[in-house]
Amino acid sequence: MSGQETKTFVVTRFDPDRDEAPRTQEYEVPVRDDWKVLDALNYIKDEIDPTLSHRWSCRMAVCGSCGMQVNGEPKLTCKTSLKDYGARVEVGPLANFPIVRDLVIEMEGFMERLQAVKPWIIEAKEAAAREGPHRQTPEQLDAFKQYSMCINCMLCYAACPVVANEPHFLGPAALALGHRYNQDSRDAGAPERHDVFRGEGGVFSCSYANECSEVCPKNVDPAKAIQQAKLLNVLDWAQSFVVSRGGK
Amino acid sequence: MVEVLRHDVVIVGGGGAGLRAAIAAVEADPKASVALVSKVYPMRSHTVSAEGGAAAVARADDSLEMHGYDTVKGSDFLGDQDHIRYFVEQAPRELTRLEHWGCPWSRNEDGTVATRAFGGMTTKRTWYAADKVGFHMLHSLFQHSLRFDRIVRYDEYFVTKLLVDGGRVHGVAALDVREGVVRAFLGRAVILATGGAGKCFPFTTNGNIKTGDGMALAYREGVPLKDMEFVQYHPTGLPGTGILITEASRGEGGYVRNKDGERFLVTRDYGVGTKAELGPRDMISRAMMRETAAGRGVQGPYGEHVWLDLTHLGEERIDSRLPFVRELAKTYANVDPVYQPIPIRPVLHYMMGGVDVNIDGATSVPGLYAAGETACGTINGANRLGSNSLTECLVFGARAGAHAVHYARGAAAPDEVRARAQAEDEAARIDGVRGAALGDEPMSRVRADMHATMEAGCGVYREQASMQRACKELAELKERGKRIRLADRSKVFNTEIVAALELWNMLEIAEAIAYAAAARKESRGAHACSDYPARNDAEYLHHSLVIRGGDGRPRLDKKPVTLGIWEPEERKY
């Protein structure tokens, strides 16, 4: 069950105080056959090179901290088995993000995008706790549940060709989360999210490459969310046109 | 010169309790400015890993009295009954508020919130969102908190010291991990909400960030830690990694079996009676240990284990109620629970003990509050019931937030000159440690030895000799901890110095756990002593306190338990 072999890890290193540009460093790691990529990084940190910086915490694929490029693909390193890789494994920071240091990326751009879609319940009338929970049928829950599964791991941003080229694009996770609230039967905030969804960097920037959904470790399917949102916005636009023409 | 940031309330930690406290504070005082200082982005907080549910009375066949009694009995009568009564009263309101804030609770066909069975609970009162309850609660709270511009986040700031002046707290000093500099956060009240300290142990469900930081911050300022001997082993962790397989898997009908396929919680007398797999965690963990000790465990690559069998539940139920369990079992144990049993063993999960607080979350230092796993109020006593802790984060996080902001309104402003001077000293200390060869030993070796000491001394079963040995070894480990060899001199995102500061926090907490454990010569709840197997109310029906002496060594004291509603009785199911 627990055989050992040695693999070579080619790890991106970058310290902005010392390095002009990112470089790579190689480490030989004796790995167990049930190890994930993260186990090898922690081995390097503890046993070989304490100066390596990477983020991680839950090691069970739910906190979203440990996204990195593994052999060029965005992966959650705690969920990525080493047995699926050969003798050389390249580990780098997630693509399409500025590097803070080594394997640590700049998250602030995402935090601003998340804030922009107003990812909270906007009620028509605020309910008091004494009124008890809203009713929401299983079908109503299913309308948004998948989109509420996002762990903010940033893999979809690293995979998205639009993110790479368009600096204003809100990106898959933020748009899927905004759409999640629009689809929630308890929410009446779609008009407040309307401008950000339709504006520059909104849903119509998406070219439907579907890369986001392919790399998502939680099957959120942000591409589907964005396509649904596009359709709703087109219908919304058509309806407003009809209403405004026929209104007065 | 250290930069000074000014707020009314400073909250340390951005998980369930910290976020709830922040929201309560800005709701209670429309002018208050709240700093939310967290060593990780809030949505990385360990609340995210909770799976099974949050308890609150919701059904016609349930009552506050029953939830209260179950909790008191689960605590082996060491819970404070006034706190427990308040907790069960507030629980439905808090879970309802979370529903209003968007938490995607699972539903019955008629649209009402669904509830499931949980260990030690008389009826179905655990609200759930499939088996990702902590994840959904955390993201709902975090996303809701984004609408308040008076909650000012400082993400990836590691708080290293409380600024205490004239016996009152005046803020915190925190290392900006990103920049590598220390800043002072002035506030007339501070709330500690940093979670527990599971990483003191080698085999734990806890994430890497659970290093007892808030407990250590308070302990160093003379605040007592309470009931630290009570650490909870969850019965169902994956061997090797310690990854949690939720109790909801038993709540949904899963069986625990030994190597012969026998449901030993049914066939043998382990004190859980007809509750069987839905007995409380302390008893089931002990039953599993006794099964393996009797030769009925299964030998695996990571030691002995037993089985959690969900195969009779069927694919549809597993996928609708326990999808995360299926994902975790496949990814981390290489078994599909639809077809195969899951290997499981008891794993360190939760600290019942923590910073001694009153019902408002207030500590003995004016202005200093604590909530969530960091605090010990206490509702959990000697053993927490599953699904009470997420609710606890909300109920007591909200109360601490409201009380802290109220206190801050009436308190004098911090003396900036003295607070800045303390922060300057802290900055100098951090600069002196960063990348310094304090000695010869690698940090990872001291950490590994601390782990071995805690596992040997404070496991599921303890005995005087092993606990005394742990106390002695921890004193040595603290000395060794001062002589570790650090190598990373970079200021930017230096995770080595964060890990060193975390190790020093853990060593303080580990020592407090071992001292409190050695002093309690009885068995109660999760504290099971082989040499004192019976509960002893005559001598030990009291909380234990550990206070850090001037020499850094723990000093023991005790405190009465608040009874008065439910009389102590033999804990038998």
Give me a quick take on this structure.
In chain A, strand 6 and strand 7 (about 105) form a beta hairpin. In chain A, about 35% of the residues lie in helices and about 15% in strands. Chain A has helices spanning about 35-50, 110-115, 140, 155-160, 160-165, 170-180, 190-200, 210-215, 220-245; strands spanning about 5-15, 25-30, 65-70, 75, 90, 100, 105.
Low-confidence stretches of chain B: none
Overall pLDDT metric of chain B: 97
Shape annotation of chain A: elongated
Number of helices of chain A: 9
User: Order of strands across the biggest sheet of chain B?
Assistant: 7-3-2-11-19
Main sheet summary of chain B: 5 strands, parallel
N-to-C order of helices and strands of chain A: EEHEEEEEHHHHHHHH
Number of helices of chain B: 16
Biggest sheet record of chain A: 5 strands, mixed
User: Which structural category fits the helices and strands of chain B?
Assistant: alpha/beta
Q: Which structural class best describes the helix and strand composition of chain A? A: alpha+beta
The name of the CATH architecture of the largest domain in chain B is: 3-Layer(bba) Sandwich
Oligomer state of the chains in this structure: heterodimer
| Corresponding CATH superfamily of the largest domain in chain B | FAD/NAD(P)-binding domain
Please compute the radius of gyration of chain B using only Cα atoms: 23 Å
Helix proportion range of chain B: 25-40%
What is the 3D form of chain B?
globular
% residues in beta strands of chain A:
15-25%
Radius of gyration of chain A (Å): 21 Å
CATH topology of the largest domain in chain B: FAD/NAD(P)-binding domain
Number of E-type strands of chain A? 7
